[in-house]
Amino acid sequence: MAVTNENGSASVNGHAPDRSFLTASVPQLVKQLTLDEKITLLAGKNFWETAEVPRLGIPSVKVTDGPNGARGAQFGKQTSATALPNATCLAATFSAPLAASAGHLLAAESKARGAVCLLAPTVNIQRSPLGGRAFESFSEDPTLSGLMAASYINGLQAEGVSATIKHFIGNDQEHERNGSNSIIAPRPLREVYLRPFQIAERLARPDAYMTSYNRLNGTHASENSWLQQELLRKEWGFDGLIMSDWYGTYSVSDSINAGLDLEMPGPAMWRALPLVKHSIAAHKIDPRTIDKRVTEVLNWMQKYTKLNPEVVYAPKGPEKVRDSAEERASDAKLLREIGSQGAVLLKNEGILPIKSGKVAVIGPNVKTPVVTGGGSAKLRPLWAVTPWEGLEGNKPAGVELSYAFGCHGAKFVKLLDSEFTAADGKHGFDLKFFVRGEDGELATTPALVDRWDVSELLLGEFQVRMGGPAVWVAEMSATFRPQHSGEYEFGTTLTGSGKVYVDDEVVVDASRDQQPGTAFFYAGIAEKRGTFKAEKGKTYTVRLVHDSRRPPDSEMLSQPIQISGMRLGAQPLISDDDAIAQAVAAAKAADKVVIVAGLNSDWESESYDRPDLSLPYRTDEMITAVADANPNTVVVLQAGSAVGMPWLDKVAGVVFAWYGGNETGNAIADVVYGSVNPSGRLPLSLPARKVDIAANLNFKSARTDIHYEEGIWVGYKHFNARGIAPLFPFGHGLSYTTWEYSGLEVTPPSGEPSPDKWKLEARVTVTNTGKVAGSHSVHFYTAPPAETTTSLLHPEHALQAFVKLDDVQPGESRVASVVLDKYAVSHWDERWDTWRVEQGTWAVRIGVDAQTMDGRAEFEVAHDIEWRGL
């Protein structure tokens, strides 16, 4: 039993924990370890913790997902956590200080979960906005991605929590990600996909890297010695930990010899004692290599144990929630600031900000807490402000709001709400788990009885509590007291088979005719639905009975890992025809309309990519009908990446709000009502059509290969080079004031040919020429010498630096300045296998957006410069 001593240190059974690891010599520890202990340290102990060696005082340390919040150890009964705005929203702020502040907050959240390592940030390039994890990544631009990641990592690691920069490298889509082969030529590999990691390594030194699931040019990243040893450790000088993505290890000797220090999660699949010892005996692994891997693991563990003894040596118990009034107020202020500064005003024909009038608020996302995307980034928000709550709670005195649903936008039927309770009338749902014996008979006594308040569960931790993998039946039950009479729609998705009962009537049969779905990391079936006619005032018992076995006729594909889950939803049956008609009527009765629509964690998620740019179901039709009824319409979009806007010409305004985390509704209200002057700018190009995306013809795995044939022409570089007009260009973002640039100039670069001494300063005067104060990010691009004088074709201009000016008053002028170095003028030379700077007349330009440049300040590069490393 763990207790706490008077001095506050944890103890076990009355004995203080062994803290000798804090001062131990790692080389001496390696000498004292047995071979079995060494091998044990090369894989996780469980899903989230490293292995321990109590004999030598080596503790286990805990890691946690993810990029926009520290979820903690549970996927099912998750600890409530602070949900930050997603990465594209953070990047849209173009504010390095805000990224650092996000890192500071995430460190505090990680420690509250008992973790000293956050599995973040994600810096894969948004090669296509359709990528399932695009919302986790910062941008299509490698420099923006790298600079934001560096600030994020510096903020995180300054508080003593290890960053784990990921996914290294080429996991830019989800399709067949475990076996796909990202075929990337040396120049785009270096200039586009490795560059964010390189910038972050140079400026922030992340202490851990996570290898990607896929292959890179024929070899899995976790087995790729060039990637891990030659590039990362030797060329870049990295001296931290390299871990696999979860179940992203595919070999014994190959991964160990290539440099992969830690197989995650545990218990070991590939690094089980017999397999590794057999490989050593067969001379496939040199014992000295085992020592190297163990040394890297112990160095990393010791560093973060020393920085966080109060976390590592704390008694094991429930994860903590940072929910004091002071913490809540501080966190909410930061999240609201990131959300409002990241929101991008795409279009405004005089309708925003709204200060008065009757306003119809319409849309499927209005009263739904859409805080982030899905997969590893998904978490249980400690609180969530919906758009309706934000708009209602912050409205000016002259604004009167009304509401209409609009149409369906969610992929699944809504999770059970307040109409459903546990059998005793309390909040939540009852859970029972019955184990099926080897004879196939189901036990009559449940192996586990529990309760939870969210009717969607990944069941891993429940299986652990039942004693491990087994064939079982789970029952989720609730008492249903309908608030009105009429048809209710029930829906379920699960990983086995099952049925939904209302009283004893089967309403949904998910035991046959199953089709593959996307829930539970692609392990769930496509949702099955059914209806039931309920009467107000009556009480019903609703049950989802879930057998872990799939039916014989199931078309579900086997997964690389066993995932079990079940989800039960219910909602009044609403016809989209009726909902759209009601939305049109509401729009006609209002002076102005605010539509809140977009995607959510079921549409944008790890494990699968989006098929196209469309908004869900009939959303585009609904927006068009509302705008036809009342052209004074603003559309607020919630999404992590680009969506199509076929109704764009019909509406008066568009705000791209991304996924805003806990404070979503307040951040939206700040922009809509004008208490915050929008300053967000697009960190990615919004294409008008799917076919305009550079990777469109080579996005999915084609017989395991993904050909990155677009080369360096990704995002705005592709649109500019080919003369294609995007819907909105990279860097676009309107304001409630106007901005003017003047006096762009550069200091002449040093005449030194040394790459590390080559630097210049660029500066420009920025004036607020409007009537309201605002913040503004200034984007510095470099333009190469004329095409006729260079040996290669280069992008006509590329973002190299940015700085944000905060709270600039009307009529005020400020100077924005940045220092540019060798990165701003270098390209990867495939013939010479080196970074190279070409001679000639270069220029610095200011980007109004990626297609519109303002000013030109030229400078000369008088020497050919070559370099490698950082």
Mean model confidence by pLDDT = 95
Helix/strand/pairing class, anyone?
A: alpha/beta
CATH topology term of one domain = Rossmann fold
Name the CATH architecture of one domain. Answer: 3-Layer(aba) Sandwich
User: Biggest β-sheet, characterized?
Assistant: 7 strands, antiparallel
**What's the number of helices?**
20
Catalytic activity: Hydrolysis of terminal, non-reducing beta-D-glucosyl residues with release of beta-D-glucose
Pfam families: Fn3-like, Glyco_hydro_3, Glyco_hydro_3_C, PA14
EC number: 3.2.1.21
Keywords: Carbohydrate metabolism, Glycosidase, Hydrolase, Polysaccharide degradation
List keywords for this structure.
870 residues, alpha/beta, Rossmann fold, Jelly Rolls, Immunoglobulin-like, 7-stranded antiparallel sheet, 6-stranded mixed sheet, disordered N terminus
Describe the structure in your own words.
The chain is an alpha/beta fold and 870 residues long. Among the domains are: 325-404 and 585-682 and 713-722, Rossmann fold (3-Layer(aba) Sandwich); 420-572, Galactose-binding domain-like (Jelly Rolls, Sandwich); 739-867, Sandwich (Immunoglobulin-like), CATH 2.60.40.10. Strands 16, 17, 18, 20, 22, 23 and 25 form a 7-stranded antiparallel β-sheet that branches. Helix 4 (96-112) runs antiparallel to helix 13 (325-342) and helix 5 runs parallel beside helix 7. Pfam families: Fn3-like, Glyco_hydro_3, Glyco_hydro_3_C, PA14.
